[in-house]
Amino acid sequence: MTFLRWLLPWLAIPAFSQEALRYTINYASGLSLGEASLIASKTKVEGEERWGVQFELDASVPGFAVVDRFQSVATGAWCSIELQKATKHGRRVGEEKTAFDGKSGQATRETKDGGKSKITIPRCAKDALAYVMFLRQQLVTGKVPPPETVFFGAEYRVRTEFKGTQNVTVAEKATPAERLMVTVKGPASEYTVEMFFAKDATRTPVLVRVPLKVGTLTMELAR
Questions:
Q1: 100 forms bridges with which residues in the sheet?
Q2: Nearest to residue 77, comparing CAs of 113, 102, 57, 58?
Q3: Closest listed residue to residue 53, CA positions, set 17, 86, 24, 89
Q4: Distance between CA atoms of 28 and 72, rounded to whole angstroms?
Q5: Under DSSP, is residue 29 helix (H, G, I), strand (E, B) or coil?
């Protein structure tokens, strides 16, 4: 019986090998700001499972454009191998890469302008994209992960709280979803994001609400 209790949640983990999700980005007022996408694909490298996860965002307000491109490579257990970031926020442009080595307990972060630094990491460190995918996997098994440090350039302490199940309107359709409050604390900031995951076999992220000084920003799955 003990063995079955251990095994059954893992049998529920989705085995999809490709996923492409599209989102619209809006203010709470309904003003459209742009689009985003989350694309994941599974491959094998020298017999070992690898996941590639890419998040792209294009949004703008008059006089200020935001273009983000993030790409993560992780193991089948969602331990990060590499994270690439390319950002353009108005006139500010940035590009960097972080290579993770869990065996040595270090990650190497390199920026386009030649900057280089070492970061101490646990054996299974997760970047932000790998963490989201890991979180979805945990939800499938009925779990919420304990607080942990997530790497996204800097180190961020992430705490996730389950807030129950409710219907949310996505693309004008009521969708049963699990509501989570995700608190992120970094070197110079702390904020809480409200996230909704559909109660489907893969816990598809359907709605994200981000509080800003100018109002709440929403990212909604486009059907």
A1: 107
A2: 102
A3: 17
A4: 30
A5: coil
Q: Where are the alpha helices (DSSP H) in the chain?
A: 2-11, 128-140
| pLDDT tens readout for residues 107-145 | 999 998 888 999 999 999 999 999 999 999 999 999 999
The C-alpha atoms of residue 71 and residue 60 are separated, in whole angstroms, by 21
Q: Are 193 and 208 within 8 A, CB to CB?
A: yes
**Mean pLDDT, 10 residues at a time, over the chain (223 residues)?**
40 66 88 93 88 93 85 96 94 95 96 91 97 95 95 95 95 93 94 95 94 82 86
Contact 187, 130 (CB under 8 A): no
DSSP string for residues in 186-208:
-SS-EEEEEEEEESSTT--EEEE
- At which residue do the structure tokens 């386009």 appear? 112
State the residue for tokens 């997530």. 150
Q: Find tokens 């059954």 and name the residue.
A: 8
C-alpha span between 60 and 30 (Å, rounded):
14
**Residue 154 to residue 95: CA distance in whole angstroms:** 14
Backbone angles phi, psi at 39, to 5 degrees: -125, 130
Could you give the C-alpha distances from 67 to 38, 55, 168, 186, 216, in angstroms and in order? 14, 11, 28, 22, 19
Distance, CA of 86 to CA of 130 (rounded, Å): 17
Looking at the DSSP assignment, which residues form a beta bridge with residue 23? 36, 221
Q: 126, 151 in Cβ contact below 8 A?
A: yes
